[in-house]
Design brief:
The chain is of the alpha/beta class and about 425 residues long. It has 17 helices and 11 strands. Helix 11 links the parallel strand 6 (about 225-230) and strand 7.
């Protein structure tokens, strides 16, 4: 009798202490759960063994990346239904150790062990980063983390990001976000950054974490500045230099494979840091802010574009998301926007404007997911089935997180205000709108 789905559903509900809001289809063809709900496909018993040996998010991630778990139907709907049970249970949710004190939960785990079959731990998927002991956010570990994420092939990123090759939140004109193109929205974001920095011909701009050169090209071409862009990714740098040569801008833009901590040729008139500070880490953030402050001339501006998380009652309890840390952004950390502002001020900056653009990132991510899904077969050929699955899950889940206000993204404009107090900004700062 094919009944694995019903048994699995009952066991999972016992462990979670709540009804399962999705339907389950098991390896024996059986199904159980609410009719019409998104279907979680458990392709084999190995998926269960992954969850038993790594309970929680990492076990689920490994099963998804390996193809042991899948979703039949709307991925966004499935993730939204599962989020409250698995990812967003709050700071008061009981830990695994606390849950296992419950006899019913222990019985459910024993039942899951029997259903999973021989207790051999499956090897992690090849796409999971292999950890080494040592300190975080040294030059060597940051280089390794950046390479893991970015050096997977420029053709793959071009498929996902589109012609703009901008890997950060676009800026969508409300309420026309559904109708505008991703390329236009990314151009509008770059232009917004340039206007906030008040770029003018002859200025020097430092673009920290320059990616594939889009910000540097836009600033040089549209605003007449000279640009130094730094990245730790060899593949990004090679792609950026090729684009710059094609644009005829090699005399105005220099791309370096260099850690921001090693930039010594200030002062700069302005600095852009777009989607880079998430890699810095809490322990190094004040150093990051201080280094950028030192590289600016008096009156110079910094535009720091950064993802933020919601604050916790006990900030010491914050831990990095296991799936993101193991498969997407190794060693990446998110901080509340208030923490970011405080650290910039501690470094000496005067923070003049904070613009929250959370909903814009949800629109951006949904466009990236659509690009990936439309080019799925090519994406799999360019990287691997597992890595393509990593990106699909990461971007879809992130879109929902921005939509539900679990995370946000902010542009913080800060000035190295001189002792005279003359910030150089107009009385009403938002003249760029």
């Amino acid at each position: 009798m094919a009944d694995a789905a019903l048994r699995l559903k009952s066991l999972v509900e016992q462990m979670l202490g709540a009804p399962l809001p999705v339907r389950i289809r098991a390896w024996d063809g059986s199904e159980a759960g609410p009719p019409g709900a998104p279907v979680i496909v458990v392709r084999n018993r190995r998926a269960l063994r992954r969850l038993l040996f790594k309970p929680g998010e990492l076990g689920l991630a490994r099963a998804w990346v390996a193809g042991d778990l899948d979703v039949d139907g709307d991925l966004y709907a499935a993730l939204d239904l599962l989020a409250e049970l698995i990812w967003e249970r709050g700071e008061d949710a009981r830990t695994l150790g606390q849950a296992l004190r419950d006899p019913e939960v222990r019985a459910a785990v024993r039942g899951l062990v029997r259903l999973a079959g021989p207790p051999l731990p499956p090897a992690p998927p090849a796409e999971e980063i292999r950890r080494r002991r040592g300190h975080l956010h040294t030059r060597r570990t940051d280089q390794r983390a950046i390479s893991h994420h970015y050096d997977v092939g420029n053709d793959f990123y071009a498929l996902v990001l589109g012609p703009s090759m901008v890997y950060s939140c676009a800026y969508w004109p409300a309420p026309e976000a559904e109708g505008g193109t991703l390329e236009t929205a990314q151009r509008d974001k770059l232009e917004l950054v340039c206007r906030k920095l008040d770029l003018k011909p002859g200025m020097r701009l430092l673009d920290v974490g320059c990616g594939w050169g889009s910000m540097a090209i836009h600033a040089a071409r549209e605003h007449g500045v000279t640009v130094v862009g730094v990245t730790l990714s060899q593949e990004q740098a090679a792609y950026a230099r090729k684009r710059i040569a094609e644009e005829g801008l090699t005399d105005r833009i220099e791309i370096r494979v260099q850690d921001y901590r090693d930039v010594q040729d200030g002062p700069y008139d302005a600095i852009s840091s777009i989607g880079m500070a998430e890699h810095v880490g809490a322990e190094k953030y004040l150093e990051y802010a201080g280094d950028l402050y030192a590289l600016l001339k008096p009156g110079g501006r910094l535009l720091n574009h950064q993802i933020a998380r919601r604050p916790r009652r006990d900030e010491s309890a914050y831990s990095v998301d296991e799936f993101i840390d193991s498969y997407v952004f190794p060693d990446g950390e998110l901080a509340p926007v208030g923490t970011t502002v405080t650290q910039l001020e501690r470094a000496g900056f005067e923070v003049r404007d904070v613009e929250a653009i959370r909903e814009h990132y949800a629109h951006t991510l949904r466009r990236w997911v659509a690009n990936l899904e439309a080019g799925w077969e090519r994406a799999v050929r360019l990287v691997s089935p597992g890595r393509a699955r990593v990106w699909r899950l990461y971007m879809a889940a992130s879109a929902l997180s921005f939509e539900r206000n679990r995370i946000g993204v902010n542009q913080v404009l800060a000035v190295k205000t001189p002792e005279s107090g003359a910030s150089g900004l107009p009385l009403r700062a938002r003249t760029w709108n």
